[in-house]
Amino acid sequence: MPSMIINGHEVEFTDEKNILDVCRKAGFDLPTLCYQDHLSPFGACRMCVVDAGKRGLLTSCSVPPENGLEIQTSTERTRRVRKMSLELMLAAHDRECLTCPKSGTCKLQDYAERFGVDSVRFISRNKDKKEIDDHNPSIVRDPNKCILCGNCVRVCFEHQGLHILDFSKRGSNVEVGPAFGKMLNDVECIFCGQCATVCPTGAITVRPEFENVFDALYSGDKKVIFQVAPAVRVGLGELFGMKPGRNVEGKIVSALRKMGAYKVFDTNFAADLTIMEEATEFLKRLDEGKNLPLFTSCCPSWIKTAEQSYPELLPNLSSCRSPQQMFGSVAKKYFTKEEGLKPEDVFVVSVMPCSAKKFEAQREEFTTDGVRDVDAVITTNELARMIRSFGLDFLELPDEDWDSPLGESTGAAVIFGATGGVAEAALRTAYKKMTGRELENQVWKPAAPGESVREAEVDIDGTVVRIATVNGLAAARRLIDEIRRGEKEFHLVEIMACPAGCVGGAGQRANDSLELRAQRAKGLSDIDSNKTVRQSHNNESVLELYKTYLSEPNSAEAHHSLHTGYSSRRRIEEDIELSEVAEPGICVEVCVGTNCFQKGAYDTMKKLNGVLRAEGLLDVVDIKATFCFEKCGQSPNIAVNGKVIGNATCDRIQEIFDSEISPLLKTGSLNK
Amino acid sequence: MIIATVEALADARKEAREKLKSRLRVLVCTGTGCVANGSLKVLERFKELMGNEAVSADSHDETGIRLAHTGCHGFCEHGPLVKIEGMNIIYMKVHPEDVDEIVDRTINNGEIIERLLYRDPSDNSLFKSEEEIPFYAKQKRTSLKNCGNINPDNIEEYIARDGYAALARALSEMTPDEIISEITSSGLRGRGGGGFPTGIKWGFVKKASGEKKYVIVNGDEGDPGAFMDRSLLEGDPNAVIEGMAIAAYAIGADEGYLYIRAEYPLAVERTRTAIGQALEYGLLGENILGTNFNFKVRIKEGAGAFVCGEETALIASIEGHRGMPKSKPPFPANEGLFGKPTLINNVETFGNVPSILRKGAEWFASMGTENSKGTKTFALTGQVNNTGLIEVPMGTTLREIIFEIGGGIRNNKKFKAVQIGGPSGGCLTEEHLDLPLDYESLKQVGAMIGSGGLVVMDEETCIVDMARFFMNFTQNESCGKCVLCREGTRRMLEILEKITSGLGTREDIDTLAELSVAVQDGSLCGLGKTAPNPVISSMKYFMEEYIEHVEEHKCRAGVCQAFKKFEVEPLECKGCGKCARICPAGAISGKPKEPYVIDQESCVRCGACVAGCPFQAIKEVS
Questions:
Q1: For chain B, how many helices (H) and strands (E)?
Q2: Rounded to whole angstroms, how far apart are CA atoms A409 and A270?
Q3: Interface residue ranges in chain A relative to chain B, Cβ cutoff 8 Å
Q4: B311 and B261, same domain (yes or no)
Q5: Is this structure's pTM higher than 0.95?
Q6: What is the CATH number of the domain that holds B361?
Q7: Domain boundary among B365, B398, B421
Q8: What is the interface pTM, i.e. ipTM, of the complex?
């Protein structure tokens, strides 16, 4: 077996992808700011350097282990580089640590302390504060705290297939942000918050809402009802030093009651309800052969992606609301009736592992008469802060049971929190509905760390159902492309945005490793295995709800209260067919850069195409879309055979055609 | 016309030579330097007078006189240059109004116009031919041999001068391994700065597994004052293309990119023309010279980032990403452009390849030193009498370059230092004048050849200010990826600015030294690792100047404004009050007809009063 010499010890290695992993395996930890095990190595923070003697300093995150390589993890050289890097980062950083949401969990703060950076010799560059972007429900971006490690840039691009954030400018003026300095709300951000999860400092954080919850609890004029998502119960313990993946639902119930909750319910109840609706919907589509594959609709980031990028797939999305929103609807509409309350008497709080749920809860679709179905969404991290600030000793809390009736749930519901769970749960119920028997084997085991796409075939009495489950929207995009190209065919596709599913959401403790996420997923899977009831259709409380209020899955009432519809968010609705002109006589370029686009370049192009079609010139005049003539002041711009014409708005196109294009046709001064 | 076989190439060469035969050839330099000095108008006038407007810049009359425009001769400061081949005359600083006289007297009557000859500034002696001029006498122009002597826009001229013979030899007589071993034994090393043995690099890429491979020419020459690559591409683009094609054949690539700065429009245009003509002649494209070797090339214009000269950043830029370097490994040889094995060499490296294959590895290895073979081009700038583009055998000393080729320091000032290798290089002093210029010797003294910039400084250059200048450059050009380069260079610049503005302390010098070491040791790519070199080397050789700045508040070169002090000589001041009126800071006051006084606190040391005083009564005191 190949080996390396680390600090004088021989360490064998097998398939470790970098020196860093080998060092950690050998018990020598190295600091990292820009390294994430599910992203490409970046090598920018210089913290993980190891001393390879004559070969110089190697960034252990990016260099693969080599047989016989001799390195030291801590020498005068490495210490000098680390300490200087930290001092330089601190000098350019907003050091108001005490009021920073990351105080105490910030890696930069930790390392500065660990390496003894006790003074900063350079003048602060943080006098002119950059604007903080907190104009959306989910994420707060504070560029003053950014150390430019690029984790957010890579996670957005590599994991989610988006490119919302990137570097701009040069030298020490470099910054990270959306294009053209826009706010996250104005770009195609899906609020998954993975950028916050990988941010080592307080530059990107999940927007907190727990003050609203305290306000509601203290005001006394509303009854505060909590729902807790499955992934929270296996994520909260870590924040109090417990083993990752440990189920702490009993302590959560107890803590929320102590803080004044009127009822503590389980989102899992709503997950079972979702399955009743979704499985029925799926079987109907399967029967009719329509709108297949069915895409799950529990993940708000995926929903926003579909609205933005795949509006043509919206009919394929399940019309079921997510469990969070089903819960909100049921709580306000039916539970209040049971209790003799009015919807406005209760305040529904979700505890979620997710930042996008905050966005989802604010969507118009989920408001009834101007009142939100879910009034506040807090994250696992926020719940931990509430518990600490309330003065509860979490470890000593007794285990308590969920309130009834919206606290009852099955094993099928709890696995919603990890990739593959929703599809698995849906299949259990679909199988029963189709065959009258319970599905005996699980479709799949918990995903391996980093596994993003899984496919399976389930034979239901001769009907083969093909399912796929994806985590990460980049992988989802690839899969959708394959489906659209006809290379793959599925009946059911489950999509979750975050690595490993909701257990890896942005509301959980900032994640360092795929392994940790896998342990949480394992925790959920264990809960499922230990449940006596593991199928949604066997949830007595859910069945009771149907009996009392909803009659049956997919009934009119159920549709009204538990389903919804989505609409396209595409900025451009219709495609313009531009014909290929083999030997163009005249070339008209239309700038579709940001400025021109916003001033109507798209309409200009449409109109131009129309005029040329009317004149029968589509095979002579070539229309091309192009980028920026650098004359944005007079946009929209077009260029006729290289001559730039400004203010080429839609209504001037005929005029421009007459004065600029048709003379060229007449004089015969065509290119050919 | 497609040249379909090796034999056909030989025929085409014969034909081209026949066609280009001439009694006299008037070569007008149209390199960027000469164009800026107005050489296109000179060319235009020649065309008018020589009576052939139909053929653009490439005409000849019955008497066997031809006119052609060429690339750079290197002696840009004296441009526009006009060379008359056949009479062995070179005229300097030719203006359009001189052209009539040249045609009349020189071309028609064989007379020499002395006024237009090169005149040595030291002894006023005149030189008729290029070879005699001291600037050229010590040079050995091999990679630049065609620059200034052929029309770069006409592939026939290149073919006539043995162009593509090396490619023909490679394709018809050599296996890829033989080519690589020939290049290896020639001792050619990367001309872009790193000095990595070229043949070995080719071998790595050949060995790398993968069907698809790429060749990239790195023409992102960004050092201030460097223009070697530009001149070669402007003057002899076919040599680079031929070198690339040979490399592609050797490593098994069928596609290549020429990455050229967009700020080099002429280089881009001429390279584009050359590619077009090579395609037309079948020297690029499919089944080159009747073999099954295919090679297509594209130009990618760089958008002006210095860091894109770093190979991984350059690759990112071609791929459409932001030009930011990546950690190596993986090296481009294994995982380069679009993840495929990629060979990247500098323009000049490729430019040397055809000659090596034509004349043999031994010929190339006979030039230069033990470990640095061949010749190297340098852009000689700064305070020397003759600035320009030069090519000398490796191992030539700085003394020879500065005092013989460069003609010594301007205005008989004293030599102080030379910055070699641009902002990534170091400065060398008097004691290094006899150092042979090669990769190893320079490395030993903390400098590098870099791409070949040589900036000569005289005693009136402040060394701290020089370091500040280069640090300002690298700081602006840092891509901002790794902390030490992004923030470290910024802080180094701040300290240098503090010192040159008179506010520095001894602690600042210590911090500067500490930063230099950390940035050099810990940065991600070559830009950061070499950015502190001007500071480190200048501190090594001129520490006393740094200390003078902070302790004695003195700049011995008189460059740093902050240390200047102006005073009115009371005896000479007539009290006219002009100085008070022109002072932009309102720092001068006084009563009419009485001596005026400068308030040192508010003085901004602009020197306007010194220049404006009609009685020379204001003096700079130290």
A1: 26, 20
A2: 8
A3: 41-46, 49, 56-57, 59, 61-64, 77, 80-81, 84-85, 88-89, 91-92, 121-123, 147-148, 150, 166-167, 169-174
A4: yes
A5: no
A6: 3.40.50.11540
A7: B365
A8: 0.89
